[in-house]
Amino acid sequence: TRNSHTGVLGAFRAFSFAEGVSAILARRETAGRDKPAPAPMTGGGWQGTAIAPADLIQPETRDAYAVWQARRNTRRMPSRADMTPRAMKTFLRFIALTEIVDGGKDFRFRVVGEGIASKQKLPLIGKTLTEVDQMVPGFGTFLRDLYQQTVQKRDALAYRGTYVQKADRHSFTYEAIIVPLGNEGETPAPALVVSA
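Above: the chain's sequence. Below: its structure in C-alpha cell form.
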C-alpha cells in the first residue's frame, strides 16, 4: 500500500549510515564467473543452496543485483549514497538493512520491508540475531555465519530454497540476494538484503 511504501522509504532515509552495517553473503569466482559453492545451507527452518547471481529468476532479486552491479561500476561495492530509494523502487518492499553490533559478533535489523515482514511473521526491526535465535532457535546463528562471511569478503551472493515456519509448519519458497554497501566503496557499511 501507499502508506507502507512511504513508511519503508522514511525508515530507509532515517537509517544512520554512519554506523557500521554488515553484508550477509559472499560471491565466489570460478573461471571468471560468479560461482558460489553448492553446499546446502540450513538453520532455523531454512533450507537453501547458494546460486550464482546470474541464475536469479525473481524480478526483484534480479533488479537488485543489476542495480548493485551498475552502481558499483569498477569498485568492489557501491556506496550507500549510490543506492537511492529511487534506484531501488522496483524492489524496495523486499529489502532489509542490518548493522554491525559489537565489531561483527552480532548484527541488528534496522529496516525490514513489508514484503519480507509478511512472509517471516517475526518482529525483526530492531532485533539482533541473538534475539532472533531466541525466537527461532538456530535461525540467528545461521544468518550470523553468512553475515560474517560477507564482512570479510565484501561481495554479493544469492541463494534459493524453502522456509518452514515453526508455529504452523507453513512453508514457502524464497530467493535472496545479499549485497554489501561500502564506505567510499571500500569499507563495508550498510548491507542490503533483497528477498522475494
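The first helix runs from residue 2 to 14.
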